[in-house]
Queue: 3 jobs
Job 1
Amino acid sequence: MELIFVSFLISFLALDITIAFQVLISSPIFSGPLIGWVLGDVTLGFELGFLFQLLWLSKIPAGAYIVPEGNIASMIAIALVILLKESGFQNTSLLLVFIEAIFISYLGALLTLFYRKLNGKIFNLMMKEVELIHFKIMLFLEIGSMLIYFSAVFILTFISLMISLKFLPGLIQLLGALFENQFIIVKPVILGIGLASIYPILREALQKVSGRKVEKS
Amino acid sequence: MKKVKVPENPIKITKWDLFKVFLNSFFMQAVWNFRSLISVGFSICFFPVLGKLCETPEMKRDFFQRHLKFFNAHPYFASFALGVSIRLEEMRVAGESGVTETIDRLKTLLISPLGAVGDRLFWATIKPAVLIFGMVGILVSSSVWMKFGFIVLSFLLYNIPHFYYRYEGIIEGYNHPHDIHRFISQQRFELLRKFYVFLLLFGILAFILCYSFTMIQSGLVYVIFFILATFYALMFNRFSNNFYLVTLGTFLFFLLASILFL
């Protein structure tokens, strides 16, 4: 029941990425504490939101550009780390979840691509209905499109959580017993990668401050 | 900038109607597709004023066929085009000639500036600045309530300009359909952008200093791996733009290093 509820919450928050609202609540620093609160550990939710935020920051979903679905991946990862915290090997748990999150961000990008292609078909249907002077159906198609995305993210989240909770605990125990102390570097390395990934944003900001040309189409 | 005088129109669009359009605009990218981009969400925004702009079902059909054509813009800044379209459609209802062509032409002309200004202001400046500010807030706060306070502040720092331009764009587009370009010039947003650029720089600097300080207290090994991972990923980024390759490549390299050397 808890998994269904968390998957429902993540799917709802995922609508904020591009489809509805766009008020940033899907970003890790906002969604992390929310998921943490639902799963009973707000502090860890804050910490994980902080950890995952930088990674996807420079991926701008402008125009038709499809970026790694970092927000969905982060939300699933945050839920997983909290659900797996009883394993006793926090660093190993974070390590495996992080690798899985990168894979999920790729699946999320594919999902967005398929969803946009499907929307092309919905658009064609809409044009036909407009020609037939059926306007109310436009609203139904719009809501239907959002529900399809919601359902797709729900399925992705639920399956990811189910599979991970089945297989990761064993792997965590195995790797954790061997390398937990070595894996203390997981958090600084994730943040280091994140910091490097925002370098283009920093460079542009510095150029703006120094007054150099920054115009981009 | 004077407001456009519209010929007498028996049905007037009210501010309440425009507010309902504003609420609909939160679903601007709902049916984003590769053929018409945001045109579906854009067209559906007109539903609250549709009855006032089109009297017969045939007029509604023509209306939607006009607006379902290819259109793209930054989702917040598309509201300027919404306001312009509503006012021009209102002029058409009032009997002004040649308005249909003007709508098509203006919308096409607005695609580039609305996208460029919005992307640069929100995606490239305000969003990273606010999120890094929120991160620093989480890092420096000792209690959950303080962290929560910083998160709320970050949310407001982002959404106050977001809501303002989303709504104001409709109003300004509606009031100034023919000289809307004056309202969407880069210069207009320069002061706001500068504020967020400084917030971004302050945020990055504060993040590096605070996080380094926290790590030094935990142990030198954290600092070393943090610095090395940053530079390694930076170098990797110069050779490949593939996010997955750079991220996983760097991560696995340092895992191996930690197993070998720690």
Job 2
Amino acid sequence: MLARLFEEIPRFFSHYNTIFLLKAAATTLCLSAGGCIMGLLIGFSLALIRITRGQLLLPARILSISYVESFRRVPFLVTLLFMFFVYHALNLTVSVFIVGLTTVCLIAASYTGEIVRAGMESVHITQWEATEAMNFTLVQKLRLVILPQAWKVILPPLFYFFLGFIKDTALASQIGVVELTYSGKVLNNKGFSAALVFGTVLALYFTISYPLARFGAWMEKKVGVSKDRRR
Amino acid sequence: MEYTLQFGQVLKYVPYLIAGAWLSLQIAFLAFCGGMVIGLLGAMGKIFGGRIVRSVVGVYVTFFTNTPQLSQIYFLFFALPEAGILLTPYEAVLIGMTLNAGAYLTEIQRAGFISVHRAELEAAETMGMSLLQSVWYVILPHIIKVLFPPLSNLYIIMTLGTSMAAIFGVEELTGRALNVNAITFRSIEIFSVTAGLYLLVTVVASTVLVLLGRWLFHVKGKVF
């Protein structure tokens, strides 16, 4: 078996196959990065809605909470298939990449919403009260007082979440997005040895994910909340 | 939008789907138990092992936490037959999930072991406790408080992760949803019902875990 594998290697890493694999890796990265950045924007607004007070915004708060809680309890695959058919029912002609991106964005919104909220709650209550006393507007509160303190708590878990999504987007292959796992399936169907193809795919995922994981660990140490926070 | 939602046809299949959800929970439970054993050995190896054991465990953990579970199962399912090992879809998914869970559980359990202070072990020794006693009365109550929240979290994530088994043709909740989709063609309805069932199953599972944690280990936790 190994002899056959070695014999296949030069044929496998031909010009076009290499480009195909690298493009697929880029798609994986775009899908997770793009989805997570858009998700972060939505998640941030969800967290903002959740910390508002006042009777009028109560329905919005309930909506935001139920969104965050429910999307975190549905598997990526089910949401993906659901979105796939929703786009179809709405008669929208979009590429499968867009379907994948929307799904990543929807799920990322619920997770990042929770992370951002936890970060904001980590800021001591007296800081919030102080901003009230200074009569700051909401934007001022966040920009001048809360976010400068909260981002240290938010950033590390956010980065790990993004890392996790690089791996979760493998499921997007099921609706036909040409990312790494899908490219593995295609090359396997072309007749290359499955061990070689999926070994390469795993190695490519590893080369994307591992440096980022090391960077995340370094950042966590660098940014990490210092023990003697002044309260 | 010219699509009318018709849940009638799909709701007939709810008992069929619930049986699938039971299989999902079973797969998650088996993989979790297997992962706990691997994780325990891994954490022991990482803390007490020599240099070779430590680096082997380190490579295992970094590899499995940095590659997607789906591609790992693809590898098991399609590449191992070339070496003459044929796995059924159920076995491939179970082995893949167990190995993956083992990697994460190694890290989680290692963090738990580290949280026990040396002074507490020495105190147990001073009290004349045997190894079993000190594990039962000193180490376990301490570790479980640190470990329980991340463990129950992982269990929920793994329950969601079992949806991957559908891709290989295991008839758990998502697999059965795909079957019903092929019979009725009410795609939106069936997948929203499936999403609802996953919601139900995970909420029930987390409630049970929180209650278990409260009664057995006095760990405070919340479902939401």
Job 3
Amino acid sequence: MNEPSPNRSLARLCLMVLFPLLSILAIVLWLSDGSTEGTFIRFTNSLLTSFTLFSFMLLLTLFVYGDARKRPIAPLVGMLMSVLLGLGLTLFFLAQGELLMEDNGSVRAQALSNTIRFGTTVIGLSLAVVVVGGTLFASLMNGPRQTIHFEEE
Amino acid sequence: MEEATQAFVFFWLAGLFVVFGTMIGFFSKVHWQRRSGMVLLVLGLLSLMATPWTLSFSPSSSFGHLLGSLVGPAVLLGVGFYLITFSGNVPVGRLSKGDRTTGVVMVMFGVLWLEAMHWWILTPMYPGEVNRYWLIFWPTMLLGVLAISTGAFAVIGLVGDGREREQRLMLLVACFSSLLLLLGAMLDGPNVAHEEFASEVLLAAADIFGAMVGAAFAILLFAIVLAIYEAQQPAPKRLDPPTATQLEQASQIIAHNLGGVTEDE
């Protein structure tokens, strides 16, 4: 029997995740009369905020790495630079007039609003994981017992 | 206390407590550190949920209000799924059939509660209008359920054997969330109009894709930083080849352990 290649499986997985999502979004877009106002600004703000906060969390994990590698300083400095780069890019783009500003009066207010909105997105996705994971595990653990039959030597 | 200081202490410091508490509480190997992490997490969450009272002047308190509004359904879903899962085929500490029934009822109430927050009068209202973070949370959660359930459907198909029941269930969950998204975009709720919901779905999708791309960039950069550092490390010192004396000694030990005879004998 031919085993599917890992690349093919990955492509199939991506297609299975993206196709239904994009289809529903296309229908919703059609229902909302094709208005995509503000989506690009939200995408960019979310990207910059996510990059900065994820880099910060990965920076924290480098302390564990540093402990295992007898406290090397180089990766810590590298990641710190990336956090500062993300933060700098966010503030730079926010300061460019109306480029990334939404309903907030100042750059600081917009940056703080981005952070809170990122928190809300994380909570929404976490609860989605609880719902799907919980349903899946509840079904797996309550289904009929599956026994593995080994061939006799 | 000044308003800015109050906002820092009750909101941002509490948020940092939640982040650090989660990291220490779930990933530390030392017992007392795990416990301290959990205490930090609970303190941070309580402070955030109290912001409608402690920071009523700040728009950020809407986030605390949302957290407080979600505690009920989140606990019902979490505990409900736990009870159903551990009353099934688990070898140790199996819960009773009654616990399973309780779990099913809790999950149903949790789902109904969330639905009632959009389709009935339970919508989080703060201050005097629909909480703006609820308008971000609800479409994000529905889109997340849709993407994760279709992903789980594909993964089960790839690695599972005889798991058609689970695949059908994932498909059902995906259809349910799609239906809710489409109904929300077509019909007005008591507090949220369908045009507003449709617009928020598109903005939530932009948020999710942005967060995913940003996280992917950060992880890629992290990998590059580590790869560059590791590539610069000097190669480990190679040992000199064994001398004739060492080889002779080793052969004697091996011969002794195998019960054979050496050339000398």
